[in-house]
Design a protein that fits this description.
heterodimer, A: about 230 residues, alpha+beta, Alpha-Beta Plaits, nine-stranded mixed sheet, 11 strands, about 20% helix, about 40% strand, B: about 625 residues, six-stranded mixed sheet, four-stranded parallel sheet, about 15% strand
Chain lengths: ~230, ~625
Amino acid sequence: MPEYRLHFIKENRLRFLSHLELARTMERAIRRAKLPLAYSEGFHPHPKIDFGPALAVGISSEAEYFDLHLTKASDLEKLKHDLNHTLPAGLHIIHLKEIKRQHVKSLNAVLNRAAYRVSLKVEAELVGEIKEFFENLLAQTEIVVTRKVKEQQKVVNIRPWLHNVTIEMSSATTMQIELVGEIGSGGNLRAEEIVKLIPFTVEILHVVRTGLWHEEDGLVIKPLDFCE
Amino acid sequence: MSEEFSLITWENIERLLGKVQKPGRYTGEEYNLFRKDWESTVLKVALAFPDLYEIGLSHLGLRILYELINQQENMLAERVYAPWIDFQALLRQENYPLYTLESKRGLAEFDVVGFSLQYELSYTTVLMMLDLGKIPLHSRERGEHDPLVIAGGPCVFNPEPLADFFDFFLIGEAEEVLIPILEKIKEWKGSGRSRASLLLELAEFEGVYVPAHYEVVYQADGRIQEIHSTTDAFPVRAVVRHFEVTPFPKQWIVPFVEIVHNRIVYEIQRGCTRGCRFCQAGMIYRPAREREPQRILEELKTLTENTGYEELSLSSLSSADYSMIESLLGQACDCFTNQRINVSLPSLRMDAFSIALADKFQGSRKSSLTFAPEAGTDRLRRVINKGVTETDILTAAEAAFRAGWQKLKLYFMIGLPTETEADLAGIVQLAEQVLKIGKQYHPRANGLRITVSVSTFVPKAHTPFQWRAQISTEETKLKQRFLQEKLRGRYLELNWHDPQVSQLEGVFARGDRRLSRVIYEAWRNGAQLDSWGDCFNYQRWLVAFNNVGLEPDFYTRAHEKDEILPWSHLRSGVKAEFLAVEDERAEAELFTADCRNHICTNCGVCSELKVSSQIVGAAHARV
């Protein structure tokens, strides 16, 4: 059965879809496009569509991925065109490859790095202090936050998951913060959580996931690079 | 009008959505919605549902009207649902109006705001939505440039409790009359004629009821002395006379968030003439009219292709009664099952035929089957004209267990007219007998489950039981306790309704227009979204009744047959004499047959409304 890995973006109003809502929306678009979707066996067959790491509600993304099993091979350009035709505005396939290698691991099993870009509205006179705050933050060995895990408050050290922070100003009062860190089985970086540590009043304008990849011993492999 | 409040833009809304539960309720942008140009469209209609998005978008009626209006040149319809408390607070804080999902415009910018009223406890939500939409709540406070606030749906067969808030009601089925009514409003717009003169003209349309054109005089004891019409018009229910050609939505909106009925719901027929004496839907949607099976299948094909939905339902009040149901269901399964689209029938009868149908569409996925015996004994089922015996129920249950089902749901009512303790005990016995059969077929099954759902009977306007008493909250609790004590066991589950909620349903189902003040008071005290358990507060309602000086018990009492009822001036097409005869026949336990098979029961609908039943497979009718 042919299998494909698709790279798509999630933007504008559709950033408010939850992971489950996104999955349903994608599945229905695939059905509207009349792609020969493959189903699992058993009493409750479900379509063989496997998404990568979930994105928090409200965050846009330039780098979302899913694997799609079809019962018949399809031309890549046609597949992309047909699916983009039936997707709602806000979801768009930008690239895809057929998975040709054997035993390719699932996206969730393999992706361990994510990058985010957070746009912040800040007061111009606080820019220096915010930059300083992040320098200090990276110099620490521990960043302790409380998270709600299964209805319980849990204290976690998120410092090991935060790998890098870069800051640029796109206007006198608009700050672009790039965050890179660990996700998957080895960690769970949350962009908004980091930004909320800033000890000043700032307004989050926008959060975008800008990248998802696998990294091991300094070697970077992008999701679609696993296909061949 | 928009100067009075902050202009709402998508950027404004976007900032708020990050702070609310389920933002997908408020974004719009769903697949298949209509986008019409605001500036160049003359008449703008907001279709409002006084409950959350998940409930509102599941409602078929508004989907039908949405497409019907949007198909017209020079008209547009947009949707609005009740926001949850969190989003309401944000809108108020920012001084943004409640807006429609399509163009994100405040409700006050529309020419018409039309509510679908499906449930009595949604009335305070209507007020919340009008208030949040910056529209004056009382019709008398609205000026020439305010929207016309109108309503339809089953509740408007007695809309009296809402008389103060609506400019007019559209009683009955909207498809054939709504567009001519909207044309009239469109023509009036900008004509310089007054709102009052428009309402006088509209009152001449079938189904239109302008409550301000009527005066109600009360006796000292609160009962009605007289209903006086200032225009000599007495509204008659609107009806669809050409159901076979009436359009059904083709551009079905697919939501992002999970809604209650997340599937294609195709209305295969309208009306049910089985004649259950408690059932309002069985009286107000007469006669039975079926769509042609070929048309149904073709339209379903288009709908499944346009939506990508994985489930469709062949819907109606009693789908097993559709004359060609077997072949329709067979063809639907042949056509859609191999595309992995599940086909379902929502309403089953208690007979072997229905079980065979269910077996056809549920196949290997046998989740659960629902039966509605309604009452615990054959005697009481004769009283309500249910036309089903204990033998039928047990035979159907046995057929279901034999076919492999393990979960059955049984629906009953308590507080039906003439009910005795024997009838309550009958519910327990019936559930136990069904369970016993289940155990024979599934001796070791852990999945065996009999769920007994018990609601409290609420007498409704325009039914044979419209004069009957509703049991008090105390009596309801006693009866519920009786069942809670007797119906116990590992495989049995009992559900019941909040007695206070049922009482208020009953008050508004048969209430008069003095209750507008109670609804207003309750809303001012904070009542809204009352159908949600975490919002409902009975105390608030009691305070409101008390402040206005009315008693809930006055409305739930037994009414005299010669009493003028709050809805006596509204004609459903079913004659009051028929209802009275049916009520007497209930007492005598006499069966009234379904007129579907050509035995006219003389209810009056066909002659009063000049309509006739349409049965596609009349030649093959089963008796």
